[in-house]
Amino acid sequence: QVQLVESGGGVVQAGGSLSLSCVASGSIINIISIKVMRWYRQTPGKQRELVASITTRGDTDYADSVKGRFTISADNAKNTVSLQTESLKPEDTGVYYCNENKNWGQGTQVTVSS
């Protein structure tokens, strides 16, 4: 099993930015078997939404709503996946979760005020 811990959330005004991080830990075998890391977000009354993903090859994918504003990256040496968010909008507000296969972090709250 892989443990995931997110950080970096906070309160920011519209147009601002935040850098979210997710650190993965666990057994070496589980860590090196990771294929894809994902960021999801959950807003009240809505289903959890896939925001961005990155593969071990470095291929990335984004939800249409965040393309051009969010950037996902990975630091394999530190077992960390980051999500750089720019030009934030109030609709980006939610709890952001890191995901790997069936493993989830506890989430980090992002609040964007108008």
Structure description:
The strands form two sheets. Strands 2, 4, 5, 6, 9, 10 and 11 form a seven-stranded mixed beta sheet that branches. The chain has a four-stranded antiparallel beta sheet with strand order 1-3-8-7. With 114 residues, the chain is mainly β. Strand 9 and strand 10 form a beta hairpin. The protein has one helix at 28-32; strands at 2-7, 10-13, 18-26, 36-42, 49-55, 60-62, 70-75, 80-85, 94-100, 103-104, 108-113. The chain contains one helix and eleven strands, in the order βββαββββββββ.
Summarize this structure briefly.
The protein is mainly β and 114 residues long. The chain contains 1 helix and 11 strands.
Which labels suit this protein?
mainly beta, 4% helix, 114 residues, single chain, 1 helix
Give the overall form: globular
Query: What sequence of helices (H) and strands (E) makes up the elements?
Result: EEEHEEEEEEEE
User: Mind telling me the C-alpha Rg?
Assistant: 13 Å
Mean pLDDT: 94
